[in-house]
Design brief:
It comes from Clunio marinus. With about 110 residues, the protein is of the alpha+beta class. About 5% of the residues are buried. The chain is built from two helices and seven strands. A three-stranded antiparallel beta sheet has the order 3-4-5, with no helix packed on it. It has a two-stranded antiparallel ribbon with strand order 1-2.
Length: about 110
């Protein structure tokens, strides 16, 4: 016995197969240093660049700078810097130089 499938059911079945899956928002992830980061996650702090460091994050599947950390300038331009792991700003090694500031004399006028 042959089964006859009405045409309108076939059409409905074809429409069902042709339909796209529901909208899926692709996951925005980044890969850095063998790790996976989700969108808007902190990734790392960049190296010191004269006045501070950039902080990088995962945004739209790309690692991008988010903001800049401003470091204090050295007390004197030739002051040597010491860097601590996982910290952006250096420590300046010139305390003995800055503590030896020549004193100036002030004149005070007193009226009688």
């Amino acid at each position: 016995m042959n089964t006859i499938i009405p045409i309108f059911l076939c059409a409905l079945a074809n429409v069902a197969f042709a339909r796209d899956p529901p909208d899926v928002i692709p996951q925005q992830i980044c890969f850095y240093d063998d790790k996976t980061y989700e969108d808007e996650d902190y990734v790392y702090t960049g190296p010191y660049e004269d006045t501070g460091c950039y902080v990088y994050w995962c945004k739209n599947a790309q690692i991008q700078p988010k903001y800049f950390i401003d470091c204090d300038p050295p007390p004197i331009p030739s002051c040597p810097k010491e860097f601590t792991p996982n910290k952006c700003c250096p420590k300046y090694l010139c305390t003995e130089i800055t503590n030896h500031v020549p004193q100036t004399k002030k004149c005070v006028f007193v009226r009688n």
